[in-house]
Amino acid sequence: MSYLEHFQLTEQPFRLTPDPEFLYWSKQHARAKAYMESTIWLADGFVVITGDIGSGKTTLLQSFLSEVDDDVVYAVVSQTQLTPTQFLQAVLTEFGFKPFNKRKVELLDMLNMFLIEQYSNGKKVVLVIDEAQNLTKKVLEEVRLISGIETHKDKVLRIILAGQPELKDTLDSDRLKQLMQRVRLRFHIGPLDRRELREYIERRLSVAGRKSPDLFTDDSFDVVYRFSGGIPRLINTLCDTALLCAFADEKDTVDAVDIIAAAEELNWQEHESNTGIYDQLRHLEMERKPDSDSHVSQIEIRADDEIVDVLTFPLGRVIVGRSPDNEVYIRSKFVSRHHAQLISDESGCVIEDLNSTNGVFLGEKQVKKYRLRDGDVISLGVHDLIYHDLRDKDVFDGGDTMPKDDREDAANDQESAVNNS
Q: With the C-alpha atoms ordered 260, 266, 267, 268, is the resulting torsion angle positive or negative?
């Protein structure tokens, strides 16, 4: 009898090979996928997704690509230790060309003509680059150049870069400032927390055929977390080994003793997230960015003149929509799944419509992109979002918001200014 039969499983629950069927949708993974999907709606979509080794980036990419519509043409480049010319050849090969023995100028012309042809046929073209942390700065500069290919009105290539955490450091270098100016969305997938870890294990067991969720005992999950740090690939390795240990001992369940035995067999120490090393690094990072978690924006959500919720956010980007993975979750049929985004920076906050069905309104004027002023009232369907800048000492004075006519005049001026910036 194999351990699959012994534990009433139909397939291995903790294989290391990427399989979208086993993907666990943590809030972080759902957000990362939403950002990938945004490349389809935004003509100049350029998204960077980073995460630790084993965090599920490749599985997430496969899930995203398996669901794209027929009007999307995509290419995936995962061999990234390439010269600029080899990179262009790899991209064109994925799009069905035989671009070898061509000069770089010929490769660029082939790619340009292909993209324009796809655009003319109503197709959206997405280039996915996995393991992007291995790209040289010269190749990343090539990525920037091809991201700028456009018709007289639209960009014609959408790009997703996915890679390990060092990709963030590479992209933040002075030499790549122009590339980063093209990036619309950027997200880092961190480890699972304790609750998510348990849900992750139980989901994989369920997909693998286990009918009841009691195979792993309650005391086992904390031990898995101690040794894996919440990294999915490490969770898989540890849990698979623990299943073998429990099977060898003819046990019907996996408990903390089996997890510890598996860790010893693998010669693992506790994960760095459970030692002082992780806390020291996090503390040093906080010292370097003392204001990174300071909340600077407040959004008051109203419906029928009643307050539904009040949320505050630090510098950065938040998504508004009816999907629960958004930071601003509005459950309404008039709000799109990912309706708009709010981007807070040192100078204030900009709201941008993400190609929503019903639009974003300031008073009676529909706005595509608008720099908010303290007290502005933005309407999404039947909901109003009232913006406050928490850096303004008068935020809580309770004064009147801007009159409707003035707000609409401001919208005309501000939207024009933001779109021209």
A: negative
Alpha helices in 189-230 (DSSP H): 194-207, 218-228
Contact 205, 9 (CB under 8 A): yes
C-alpha span between 392 and 252 (Å, rounded): 61
353 vs 332: CA distance, rounded Å: 17
Rounded Cα distance, 65 and 128, in Å: 9
Helix (H) / strand (E) containing 141: helix 137-147
Residue 186 main-chain phi, psi, to 5 deg: -145, 130
The pTM (predicted TM-score) of the whole model is 0.62
Q: CB 153: neighbour CB atoms within 10 A?
A: 6
3-state helix, strand, coil in the chain (%, to 5): 40, 20, 35
Amino acid making up residue 403: P
Q: Residue 128's closest CA among 27, 190, 54, 40?
A: 40
- Measured CA to CA, the distance from residue 285 to residue 85 in angstroms comes to 38
Residue 309 dihedral angles phi and psi, to the nearest 5°: -165, 155
Tell which residue, 319, 27, 327, 20, has the closest CA to residue 189: 27
Residues 6+ apart with CB under 8 A from 192: 24, 26, 200, 230, 231, 232, 235
Q: Which two tokens stand for residue 224?
A: 């898995």
pLDDT along the chain (421 residues), means of 10: 88 88 88 87 83 87 89 90 91 90 90 92 92 91 87 83 90 86 87 93 95 92 92 94 93 93 89 53 43 75 88 86 82 88 87 89 92 93 92 47 49 50 46
CA 39/CA 416 separation, integer angstroms: 24
Q: What is the dihedral of CA 103, 107, 108, 111, to 10 degrees?
A: 170
- End-to-end CA distance of the chain: give it in Å, rounded: 68
Secondary structure (3-state) at 333:
coil
* CA–CA dist 220, 14 (Å, integer): 16
- Half-sphere exposure in the Cβ direction for 368 (13 Å, CA): 7
DSSP 33-55: HHHHHHHHH-TT-EEEEEE-TTS
Closest CA to 234 of 4, 53, 18: 53
Distance (Å, whole) CA 339 – CA 334: 10
Using CA atoms, how far apart are residues 27 and 7, in angstroms rounded to an integer? Answer: 29
The distance of Cα 321 from the centroid of its chain, to the nearest Å, equals 15
